[in-house]
Amino acid sequence: MQCFFLQRLIAPACTTAALLFATTCSATTITFTEAGTSAAGTPLLVSARIDTAADAGGPNNALKITLRSTGSATKAKADVLSSFYFNIADPSDGIRPTLTYLSGSGQAFEVRTSGTDRAVSWSPNLVTTAGTWTTSGTGVLNPSNLVAIQTFNEGWQFKTLTPPPAYPGLGFGIGTVGNSDIGLFIPGTSGSTGGFNGPVVNGTVPGSMINLGIYSTGTGNDITPDGGLDESRLVKTEAVFYFSSSKDLNSLTESWVQGNVTFGFGTSPDSVLLPEPAGLSIASLGGLLLTAGWQLRARARRSPACLEVS
Q1: pLDDT in tens, 95-145
Q2: Total structural domains within the chain
Q3: 3-state class (DSSP) for residue 193
Q4: Structural domain range at position 204
């Protein structure tokens, strides 16, 4: 199997004045877009938008991450966006802030091999264990609470990576699967340092690990998944997560993130999309990733810029 990395886009839009008089500009929004092919052969298109301060709807230490999956219609577990790793560090001293996980939400659907996908809603019990699925009535239209901190909360767990891998320089991760094999894809990590707690992100029903991952409907409204994904309860297209930071993020620019983001798909994960390392040759890293069944390809890269602050 091969993973085809096409490009990453960091959304450009500085003010005219900034372009004329400076090479960088203050920003509170950075967007990464990745494209590739899943282990199941499905074309992927995913994005992560990082908003801070006012753009995150809060004070200067507010952080908002929006994950989207908009490629071809999801068919298999290997197509589901199930984890995201990122980095935030003050470029002046290299110190990462302490992030506090506040909330996560997304509209969930039970996807079906035959018939129409139906809206459902998840409410975890963040005090004891598990939670409640709403499968009928108007409550199904309520966005699901994606926070997972207790056993069988079934949603997305947040993790500070200790120690962080050298490349990509990832400091944080959020995921709804165990990712026990993440070390095969990101050197310097392992299931214990870079994965998530299986009993927390799993559900009480066998095979429910993938629940609340993000799926794409492609150009339609419903999908026709294979049998392994039939009746899974997934977040449609988009999930939004909020955090607070121990550092003021109002002056955050692309240099704080340094392009270090990684998207994970499936449960182990089955594949990842990550930046091409500047310090390793394609051949050497490709050989390493082939142990997990993957070969890395070079991809086009655009110069980073920042969005206008309104």
Answers
A1: 899 999 999 999 999 999 998 999 999 999 999 999 999 999 999 999 999
A2: 1
A3: helix
A4: 26-271
